[in-house]
Amino acid sequence: MQTVIERDRDVSRAESKSRSFFCFYDIVLKQSHPKCDRSGAPILQDYVAASVGIIGLTFTILVCCVLLREVAPKKQKEDSLEVEWGDRHSLPPYLQKEIERTASPTGGLMDLPAWRPVDQWRTRSTETLTPEKRPIPGVARSLAAYGSYSRDEQQSVKAVRGGEFVGNRMRFKVKVLNESKYTITDVRVFLISYPSESLRLVDEDDHAYYSKIEPSGFRSPSFDFLPTHDCVKGEISAGVSYVDMKGQPHTLTTKPFVIRSVCDLLIPDQIDPKEFALRLKQLECGEIVVKVTDWTPEEMYEKALHIVEDANFFEVISNIETKDGIIHARISGLAKGKFTGKSVAAELHIKGPSGKKGASCKVKVSGEDQAMILPAIDDLRERLNAWLCPMCSSPLTLENVEQLKDGKTVVCQFCRVSIGR
């Protein structure tokens, strides 16, 4: 009897556990059972419901596993890419530029264009770069040093020019200075343009060649011209070509040298004051007033005397007097053209307070040829108003002018003559 009771008790426990298990799956699948007791649905129905629940749960687990399997590698690639490329500043410069060039406008490495696979970034190497992007073997920083050297090299080679009338010739000079640390080779200095209607090149060669110029060295070729007219107007331009130490060619162009000269093509014409006054009545004239602030009338008078002499005029009249503290000075000269023999007269009238800086100078030019009047006026005006080298008539630098104002002696950068007030 006791054995039967224990057996019934075990069966009852098993049925209770089975119903409890089925009730659990009903809850998961949101199915309703009336009650989880012995009076419920038949056991077969419970088994069917449990089987359906197990199958559904298994399918759900499989779907989740598939999704996780697809997401995990992609996440791993992104994490690896972020770690590998996260710090752009630690990359070589040429790779930083390549990444910035191909990245999306939003500016993230993870925002790569759809047409460029992510793996391509991880397998990028110097062999796949173009020759222009490929760095020099060694450290990547040498690429930047290579470019900056080229710019410094080009700026350290200079070309300056100047000109002067020597006798009956116009001499044009070009000075090539190699201020770099390396030797330049195959240096050519050539003429680009000049006023061929009024100047004729003496030599047939319009260029000069030098095999090399050492560091801190220079070359100064010159070109001689013969004037064909009494008035020369125009510009002379020259060029310089050379090869640097890397074999790269370079070309420089000088600043045009302006020629507008009559006085340098004149010769003094001696005459007495009475004849000079009669000659003036037969000539056409033009005039201009020049005001200066750097000299007193007395200094202006002395300067004008030198200018008339340097301009190849014969000094006919020169006098200076003071009236009521005002200086009145007059200088007159006569010259004629070397080629045409036509007369040109110059008259300078200087006026200003005695001993004080600031004076006015009226320049009057008369001539047989009208084409010579205006160039002669401009020539004299520039000589009076500008700081020019008395030897080659080249303009002085601002530093030279300041030194002259302080009473110092300077050297012309073109003809190397010493200048002092």
Number of domains: 4
| Helical stretch tally | 9
Write out the CATH superfamily name of the largest domain.
TATA-Binding Protein
Mean pLDDT: 75
CA-CA gap between termini: 149 Å
Account of the 3D structure:
The chain is built from nine helices and 18 strands. By secondary structure, the protein is of the alpha+beta class. It folds into four domains: 2-82, no CATH class; 88-135, no CATH class; 153-261, Immunoglobulin-like (Sandwich); 264-386, TATA-Binding Protein, CATH 3.30.310. Strands 11, 12, 13, 14, 15 and 16 form a six-stranded antiparallel beta sheet that branches. Strands 1, 2, 4, 6 and 7 form a five-stranded antiparallel beta sheet that branches. A hairpin with a 5-residue loop joins strand 8 and strand 9. Helix 1 (2-28) packs across helix 2. The longest helix is centred in the first third of the chain and has 43 residues, at 43-85. The chain is elongated and about 155 Å long. Residues 20-25, 27-40, 81-86, 104-129 and 131-154 have low confidence and may be disordered.
